[in-house]
Amino acid sequence: MNKQDLIAKIVKDTGVTKSAVGSMLDSTLDTITKALKKGDTITFVGFGTFKTSNRKARMARNPRTGEAIKIAKRRVPRFSAGKKLKDAVR
């Protein structure tokens, strides 16, 4: 399922216009992105939690040349599925 499929499903379920649903979905994703950028945690009870974590700097190898390269530390997004989501997928 992609973004357009999700929008179409929400339109079918709710009867709201496609443009309104698209705007709401864009706003939701933008809000989640901004919160993660600030370092906040977003929790949807039963669905899951979005948060960020830090990866340490490390050494790796270029697979083509075998040359050692340094990968800088960075912050990455994480998602942990909630109990209801895990149970629904089983």
Radius of gyration: 19 Å
Mean pLDDT: 95
- Number of beta strands: 5
Strand order of the largest sheet: 1-2-5
Strand content: 25-35%
Form type: elongated
Q: Counting H and I runs of at least 4 residues, what is the number of helices?
A: 3
List the uncertain runs.
none
Q: Give the SSE order as H and E letters.
A: HHEEEEEH
- Largest β sheet strand count, sense and barrel closure: 3 strands, antiparallel
Question: If you had to describe this structure to a student in words, what would you say it looks like?
Answer:
This protein is of the alpha+beta class and 90 residues long. The protein is built from 3 helices and 5 strands, in the order H-H-E-E-E-E-E-H. The protein has helices at 3-14, 18-38, 83-89; strands at 42-44, 48-55, 58-61, 68-71, 74-81. Helix 1 crosses helix 2 (18-38). The radius of gyration is 19 Å and the shape is elongated. The chain starts with a helix and ends with a helix. The model has no long low-confidence stretch (mean pLDDT 95).
